[in-house]
Specification:
The protein is α/β, with parallel strands linked by helices.
Amino acid sequence: MINIPQIKVGIVAVSRDCFPESLSVDRRKAVICAYRKKFGDQNIYECPVCIVESELHMQRALEDIQNAGCNALAVYLGNFGPEIAETMLAKEFSEKVGGAVMFFAAAEETTGSLVSSRGDAYCGMLNASYNLKLRGVKAYIPDYPVGDAEECADMLHTFIPIAKAVYALKHLKIISFGPRPMNFLACNAPIQQLYNLGVEIEENSELDLFEAYHKHAGDPRIPAVVKDMEKELGAGNKKPEILPKLAQYELTLLDWIEAHRGSREFVVIAGKCWPAFQTQFGFVPCYVNSRLTGKGIPVSCEVDIYGALSEYIGTVVSEDAVTLLDINNTVPKDLFTADIEGKFPYSISDTFMGFHCGNTCSKKLCFCEMKYQLIMARSLPQEVTQGTLEGDILPGNITFYRLQSTSDNRLRAYIAEGEVLPVYTRSFGSVGIFAIPQMKRFYRHVLIEGNFPHHGAVAFGHFGKILYEVFRYIGVPAEEIGYNYPQGVRYKTENPFAE
């Protein structure tokens, strides 16, 4: 995957000056050893300069990890720790590097160490969290942040995808083309929260894109892109005549990214695809969107800016292709009865069909064919609606999620883990039958009550734990992160007298 950061975590041990420094030194070495034994030598850097006990030590450690190219920081309390110096280190690193910070601490090892070698990091973590709050510093603190070397190694490993997402957002630009289509105001949202997150946005007219597309006519790279498309599609290449136009459009987007990324390392696109796109460009962009998303450059449909942002977070966390789907339609009762009931542990209200015109990466489809866009072709000539990638989505675990800014400019999110069922959809577009436990209640009391739009991002795997921590880190209040409550746990808005 391109367009995602590589993370190098600088691990800095800290020590309170009235505790033996050797406690932090030896315990840090044990954590590093356990991590490398279990996860290899990648992604981590052990700061050897000093154990941080003072502000001067903090400055030396900060300089060292910056020189080492670290873009994430793990502060390890080998003993009680210096609450001032350690939180100053977190603040300085966050401001200068823009990377995520983690705090974790050492548990006591043996009964024999409870006098001369007791570290009291269990106590020190409380003061560290208090001082982080005083300084207004965000940090990832694991659910239970105190452990032995192996447990701390696991915490560190969990931190890495969180750190990737946090760093990526601080260095991301979203490029959009055109306003949201009419009657799709649900995909609109205030952009203030993008700036609050550190995300840059460049909004362009469709005319800018149209002009750039025409400037790529006859581009000598087009035949090579067409050949690559033919290879990807294989027997599904049902519309070969449209591939040169799609290749021209793909090159237009890629060149626009390079010309407009500016100071940002990473870029995603919120693209226009209707109502005038088809008649003017002469195709629909779905397949190109799927190809770029498969490379690590999400392209959302219908100028869905927060959809593109959500997709990108999932791309970074999963290091895999994601997709953006409509939470689209119910599963017909006859289909449920024939293919799902009794075979899978779900009721019909746990299931729904996720759909979009043809934007899902071919790697995430059971089969694929280049088609025309059926809905658009009801009112337009079929030849201008070519360019969708149709197929049933691969069965397996998924996470349905979204980050959104509300109309009154508050961050809100949802996360629900489930699966795509191995059931033939008998439908069109990029489509799958999704099953999420207690979807009926989640749909009503999170999606509808939370005023979320119909677009949801899909990561292929269960990533709820990491996404939750990412959303918390970037500032989504815990009470604003919705999820599918299990049976017996009532939502605040759920009628207590209902059956």
